[in-house]
Amino acid sequence: MAVIGYARVSSTGQSLEVQLDMLSAAGCEKVFQEKRSGRDGKRAELARCVEYVREGDVLLVTKLDRLARSTSDLYAIIGRLKEKSVGFRCLDNQIDTTTKHGKLLLGVLAIIAEFEADIRHERQMEGIAKAKANGVKFGRQARLSHDDIAQMKARRKKGALIKDLQRAYKLSKAHVYRLLAA
User: Fold this and answer.
1) Is 128 helix (H, G, I), strand (E, B) or coil?
2) Is the pLDDT confidence value at 40 over 70?
3) Same domain, 45 and 97
4) How many CB atoms lie within 10 A of CB 144?
5) Which of 144, 142, 2, 3 is nearest to 60 (CA)?
6) Closest CA relative to residue 54, chosen from 28, 33, 31, 84
7) What 3-state class would DSSP assign to 137?
8) Left (φ > 0), alpha (ψ -120 to 50) or beta: where does 27 sit?
């Protein structure tokens, strides 16, 4: 039986160090780690981890939200582990699916974790809506003003070459074509 760890943070600005230290102290022989959002579903290292574990192994995480993005996602992952006869443990909540009490606790905590994530998302959307109502603009700032775009279109109508417009406005070829088409 091997203890295999999985650690994840949502963005490149966050550190995996605390999770890695906890997993190492818990006796993990190997740790899969990645820096990416759990909501996008593209967690290559998690997929490699689930593929790697063997019958009798235990997958260990520090917190449930590091493993799954929703209750259904958690149950899908736990289901794949169960098919492979792999146990699951979570340090933070002392969950151990090799016991009946651990399975019960997993279900209850998964629902609470999803509820908390939904509340966070709702608050974030409220904050964004309020900021937009107050005139805050999100996204990348336009590189050219409306006047610059009108001027570029006029130059093109007079016969200016795309490569000349690229150079003059410091834009890629695709960007010039997009602006001219708009």
Assistant:
1) helix
2) no
3) yes
4) 15
5) 3
6) 84
7) coil
8) left
Residues 12 and 91 in one domain: yes
Amino acid residing at 106 = L
What the block records as the tokens of 94 is 């002392």
Residue 10: alpha-carbon gap to chain centroid: 5
Helix (H) or strand (E) holding 35: strand 30-35
How far is the first Cα of the chain from the last one, in angstroms, to the nearest whole number? 61
Q: Are 166 and 97 in a shared domain?
A: no
Q: Which two tokens stand for residue 25?
A: 């102290």
Regarding pTM above 0.85, the answer is no
The tokens describing 126, both together, are 């409220």
Active site members: 10
Q: What is the mean pLDDT of residues 36-62?
A: 88
Q: Does 38 have pLDDT greater than 70?
A: no
Residues 159 and 107 in one domain: no
Q: What is the pLDDT of residues 81-121, one digit of tens each?
A: 999 999 999 998 788 888 888 888 887 877 887 788 889 89
In this model, does residue 133 exceed pLDDT 80?
yes
Domain-embedded: residue 129: no
